[in-house]
Amino acid sequence: MLNVKPLSIHIGAEIHDVDLTKPLATDQISDIKTALLQWKVVFFRNQPLNHRQHIDFARQFGEPTPGHVVFGGDKTYPEIYSIAKERTANRNRHLAPLRPWTGWHTDITAAINPPWASILRSDVVPLYGGDTHWTNLAAAFASLSPALQKFVETLHAEHRLALGEQTLASIHPLVRVHPETGERVLYVSPSFVKSVTGLKPHESQKLLELLWEQAIRPEYTVRFKWEPGSIAFWDNRSTAHLAPTDIFDSDFERQFYRVTLVGDVPVGVDGELSRSVAGNPIGAAAKPSVESSA
Predict the structure, then answer these.
(1) pTM of whole model > 0.85?
(2) CA-CA distance, 50 to 69, in Å (whole number)?
(3) 293 in a domain, yes or no?
(4) What spatial distance separates the first Cα and last Cα of the chain, rounded to whole Å?
(5) Could you tell me if residue 284 is inside a domain?
(6) Residue by residue, what is the 3-state secondary structure of the chain?
(7) Residue 226 forms part of a structural domain
(8) Residue 35's domain is classified under what CATH number?
(9) CB-based burial of residue 209 (10 Å sphere; 0-12 exposed, 13-18 middle, 19+ buried)?
(10) How far apart, in whole angstroms, are the C-alpha atoms of residue 111 and residue 72?
(11) What is the distance between the alpha carbons of residues 211 and 215, in angstroms, rounded to a whole number?
(12) Distance between CA atoms of 140 and 142, rounded to whole angstroms?
């Protein structure tokens, strides 16, 4: 029996008494998945996985994607994406204006089928600092007023990632229905959402700022302090997360590795599927597992 220890009211739990370096029993896989769906992100400590063990652990929950849709993966283990302190994506971090939601994101929502889960493992960890935050986007939606809920359930937004000549873009519902729990999720990844379709630019911006502010309210979040051998496993369909920036004010090194799992095409409250604008699906696009919950 796994020992699941919640870390906050709405999100996050540590799971103890399991060895991720070995194949899991069927009941262990089921219990971890149950905890993940309830707590949105689960954490494991003292798990000295190598690249192969990391991938093998991930495969017990789904099909791994290539390491990154733009940056690729490890030459030997293409499912592994290296997340280092000085990676390219961090070089221009000071060019955009900083807002409370700056840096918050859900992984690769510009794809028609964003990864359903991400599994991040620590290797080189700062002595202090470098914590990561997650937020529960189902709880954020549930606390909106009923009138605003009904309005945003009818809307869609463009998610876009453009690097060099590569562009990935999709139109997703502002509120997606979680394919396993049936929860309605505020699907507004700040780093990827560019505009709400059908609204004038200033209307779109004001609405998105309101929703982003709602999404990152502290009561819906958890903050995790990493140790060497820590693992974070999160449901990318119902969370957003914030990578640390404080480490750039230190000389500490930080080296992590990530595996993501092939996701499904999001479905809105009205049963309408997301649609692709540019780019290809990540891995094998899964069929939607929710037809409608209107």
Answers:
(1) yes
(2) 22
(3) no
(4) 37
(5) no
(6) CCEEEECCCCCCEEEECCCCCCCCCHHHHHHHHHHHHHHCEEEECCCCCCHHHHHHHHHCCCCECCCCCCCCCCCCCCCCEEEECCCHHHCCCCCCCCCCCCCCECCCCCCCCCCCEEEEEEEECCCCCCCEEEEEHHHHHHCCCHHHHHHHCCCEEEEEEEECCEEEEEEEECEEECCCCCCEEECCCCCCEEEECCCCHHHHHHHHHHHHHHHCCHHHEEEECCCCCCEEEEECCCEEEECCCHHHHCCCCCEEEEEEECCECCEECCCCECEEEECCCCCCCECCCCCCCC
(7) yes
(8) 3.60.130.10
(9) middle
(10) 15
(11) 6
(12) 6
Domain count, the chain: 1
Q: How many residues does the chain have?
A: 294
Q: Is residue 241 part of a domain?
A: yes
Match 């409250």 to its residue by tokens: 269
Cα 153 to Cα 177: distance, rounded to the nearest angstrom: 10
Find the domain containing 172 and state its range: 3-90+98-278
Please give the chain's pLDDT, 294 residues, in tens: 899 999 999 999 999 999 999 999 999 999 999 999 999 999 999 999 999 999 999 999 999 999 988 788 989 999 999 999 875 445 555 556 788 899 999 999 999 999 999 999 999 999 999 999 999 999 999 999 999 999 999 999 999 999 888 899 999 999 999 999 999 999 999 999 999 999 999 999 999 999 999 999 999 999 999 999 999 999 999 999 999 999 999 999 999 999 999 999 999 999 999 999 999 999 864 444 433 332
